[in-house]
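Escalation from tier 1.

The customer reports that the assembly of two entities below gives different structure tokens on two consecutive runs. Tier 1 could not reproduce it. I'm attaching the input and our single run for tier 2 to review.
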Amino acid sequence: MEASSPLPSLRGVRDLLDSGEGTSVGIVNEALERADALDEALGAFTGMRAEGALEDAAAADARRAAGRTLSPLDGVPVAIKDNMVMEGEPTSCASRILEGFVSPYTSTVVERLRSRGAVIVGRTNLDEFAMGSSTEHSCFRPTSNPWDLDRAPGGSSGGSAVAVASRIVPAALGSDTGGSIRQPASHCGVVGMKPTYGRVSRWGLVAFASSLDQIGVFTRDAGDAALLLEAIAGHDPADSTSLREPVPRFSEELTGDISDLVIGLPREYFLDEGVDPGVLAAVRDGVSVLERAGAKVREVSLPHTRFAVATYYLIATAEASSNLARYDGVRYGRRAASATDLSQMYFLSRSEGFGEEVKRRIMLGTYVLSAGYYDAYYRKAQQVRALVLDDFQKAFDECDVIATPTCPETAFRLGEKTGDPLSMYLGDIYTVSANLAGIPGISVPCGMAGGLPAGLQLLGGPLQEATLLRAADVFQRLTSHHTAVPTAI
Amino acid sequence: MDYEVVIGLEVHTQLRTESKLFSPAPVSYGEEPNHSVHPVCLALPGVLPVLNGQAVELAIRAALATHCEIHPYSVFARKNYFYPDLPKGYQISQYEEPLATGGWIDIELGEGLTKRVRLTRIHMEEDAGKSIHDSEITGGHATHVDLNRAGIPLLEIVSEPDLRSPAEAAAYLRTLRSILRYVDVTDADMEKGHFRCDANISLREPGTSEFGTRTELKNLNSFRFVEEALHAEIDRQGELLDDGVAVQQATMAFDASSQRTRVLRLKEDADDYRYFPDPDLIPLQIDLADIDRVRDELPELPEDRRARFREQYALSDDEAVQLTASRASAEFFEAAVVTQGSAKPIAKWMLRDLAQVLGQLEIGIEDVVLTPDQFAALVGLVEEGRVTPKSARELLPELVERGGDPTALASERGLEAVTDSGVLEGVVDQVIADHPEDVERYRAGEGKVLNFLMGQVMRRTEGKADPGAVRDLLSRRLS
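Tier 1 run:
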């Protein structure tokens, strides 16, 4: 099946470009060829941007020749999840309802990447409107896991995770509302990081749940994640929830030393029940690697964790029901051809345009916000959300980084959970709390369980991305899990 | 039976900002459809709202001018409903935690009576777009949507149910509009839909303290409409109650041609708006220092200025009310008084003669080319007897439209008063000589004949003689 050569990591590409051994046009061509060769089996991309990418690559090469390289990302191919808009390009959110939509404006993240010279090569597959944990709920096709094509890559940013894991691109952007970066990163054996809420602008990210959505990065290692994150992070006046905090040069904070860090293990997350023993063993091994590197390890408690999934699905669906109201067939996207009056136009356009999972969540969210239920559900969920944040604040009084499994299991089979959405939702148990609390988290490959990758999740206090990246970087200097190439491609 | 009428009003007024409430799109009027728009107004995928600081400033000003308590922390919420001209499928408004609560305004009920009307709350929200159903424009059965208006900042001002008649409701609206225009919060141009009103109305038996079941009259866009619609709804509810039929809580529409109200929808069919705080916006936090700054910059309010005018210029209640009805009028008056020195004649000339000319020309005082200085000069000429009131009235329309020096204009038109006593005496003597019978009657005690003789003198001087001087001279000659 392999008819193309795997791309190096982000810094690998940069080194090739810096040394003159490679050109951006050459590398972008390789990425496009590899996508061409692999994507029929993988389904990682919803669309390639071949012509535009090669033009951008040629411009990057010209800059380099003129000695005006913009950044370490200049000329490096990057993929974006197909829920971030770019002028002149379609944005599908893997939904029929956005059929034919071409964005007339560009998201802040794409703007920032391009202003630093990165070359956007394609858009990656996702669960429709980022709702799901498997990338099966796409109107195009499910994405396959490169470690086992019969398995899901996780989601919703499964396409980005697979594109990086399959060495088609060295880096990709994803969005994480309840684990949508960290969980597929874990299932595909790559690094996935969700920064602090507000660290990266959401302008141009198609909203799923506004108070939880955050754009983040997929790379092979923490060093690359640092470079990509520092390119996209920072205050944006176009996003009112964007933080006005200076952004450290994350790539310069990777000192290799974590002897100052205390790692907290939440006792509620290390129970032997509800988690795959192989995953738990790999995570425990990972923690001991950090301990051997000098970090102290102690137990902490996150008592409200057991309410996190319920709380998350109340808030996320409520916000989604409102955020997705704009897809009404009036201004853009799909409009049912057979409608003869206004309510039919709404009803048919939305019935035909949205998939099952999205409809389920719109209905749940509408119910949650309804008169008479608001206090019992939405308001109560917001109160529990405050308690979850409080848990983390107390825990971070006692430690610098919290370590947990990213997911209770490894990648599940395609179709395995589509009939049982609740069991899919429960898979988010370790990731959703970070979104509720708005704190940063990173998933790092920490070994294999049953032939499939497992992920170690590190969580930090607000704005502590540098600490997480430093710990993940130390871990990867001492381990080689992230260098394992997926076996099914 | 005579019922007591209970009315509360909700006013939506357009804030006078350059750009929309949550997007950089310009606020325009009469622009081609869908040209004053931005990705945010179109609710494209991925857009986010950013609050317009100028709108907040104007809203604070309005809240201060109506004696409201401004909350340092308020929250924008989403009001969810589907309509083609509502691009996001929700309107951003303020719900549980509005910008301001608990103010009041005093309204004048005539004959020196005032009434204090309490305000429940003031909050900011965005306007929707416009659906165009006109088949001439749409060319058939289609409905078209114009989003130029979508996202324009509105202020919603809700009164307590303190109003007791349609006339009080109209007085409230006039006063509120005047205050908001005074502090430059809104143009409140009724024709452009800058000032729209919904009315809640119920009836109850006099002497009872509980409210009757209310109905809501939607989209009353002129003061006349408000009064007519309220009268119609009072009649409708009164007839129901007389017949022993309960009023149903409902939203009503008023049809001006039939002068009747009809039910749009009953309360049980009302939408569930599923309000919740907008997660794309952070709560609005206002510094006390900012509130103080806006308060310091606030112009003198109409009620304060009214009191000052009565005091400082010895004006009547009525004069003070009329002169302060608009900020432009009050400022014109004061500027003219500074020049002329004497307030009373300026007030009289403004309220009678200038007002008449403005009415004829259908313009407002802000459209007048005549400067307060020039107006004061004209009144001065009359006061000094150099131009007769009649001549001044003749000159006024031209001055209003073109401005200019009244003294020069009067001389150019030959309208200077005949003040040369020799000339005047000659005319008086001639009139006495020409009307011996009338002179006899006057001397016999028929005093009113003097007016006839005066008229004759005025005619022969083409109205340019000072009436006082003529009367004096005639009386002297005939005594």
